Structure formats: C-alpha cells, structure tokens
Amino acid sequence: MARITGVDLPKNKRVVIGLTYIYGIGKPSAEKICADANVDVNTRVNQLKEDEVKRIRTIIQNEYKVEGALKAEINMNIKRLMDINSVRGYRHHRGLPVHGQRTKTNARTRKGRKRLVGGKKKK
C-alpha cells in the first residue's frame, strides 16, 4: 500500500486515479507527476515498487502544495478577503454564494434550509 502525504492510496486503482485521492491533485497533475517520475500511468498502486513511490513522493513534496498546507492557504485567502471588507469576503462571512449567482431562488446549498419569516397564516 502506498502512503503519500498522509493519504493511503487505494490498492486496486491505477496510479493516476489513486493520486487524485490526495487533496490538491487532480487528473492532469497526476498525469504530469507520473510522467516526471517515469511511472506508467496504467500501473496499479499495489504494483508500484518502493523506488517509484519514493520518486512520486519527492515530486509531490517539492513541486505541489497539497492537503493541510493547501487548505491552510485557502482559508487564509478567505480570511484576508473578510478582513479587507471586500464584497467576496462579506458573502463568505454571510454564507451566501460568492461568484454572482442568483439568490432569489436556488442557492439552497450555500444558504441552507428555508427559514420562514413571520408567524402562521391567520384565518
């Protein structure tokens, strides 16, 4: 079993797909990492040799920001937007959609469950 940056890669998947289980690495990045490490993209994770895993691990550590470091950077960027009182920061703070989507209808994923305003209907 290959363990890279604190993530256990699934055994029976191809290396390219297995690397995408690491936060911050998608399919194009995984393909580039395999090419740089001279690893065949069709190899299964359980068939990787120890030196191949080591090459992949060093490439990820040297060239990519992944997992905790990436999450911390994203959170710092959001906090900076909120500190400078930008519109995007305000919308992050309020839990509203940030990128200009409509909110009169939809946006339930970001806004949460509907909360009724007012009391019951009078008879």
Describe this structure in words.
The structure is a single chain. A two-stranded antiparallel sheet has the order 1-2. With 123 residues, the protein is mainly alpha-helical. The mean pLDDT is 90. Strand 1 (3-4) and strand 2 form a beta hairpin. The protein has helices spanning 15-19, 27-36, 50-63, 67-83, 87-94, 108-111, and strands spanning 3-4, 7-8. 14% of the residues are buried. Helix 4 packs across helix 5. 47% of the residues lie in helices and 3% in strands. The longest helix is centred in the middle third of the chain and has 17 residues, at 67-83. It folds into two domains: 3-64, Orthogonal Bundle (Helicase, Ruva Protein, domain 3); 68-110, Ribosomal protein S13/S18, C-terminal domain (30s ribosomal protein s13, domain 2, Irregular), CATH 4.10.910.
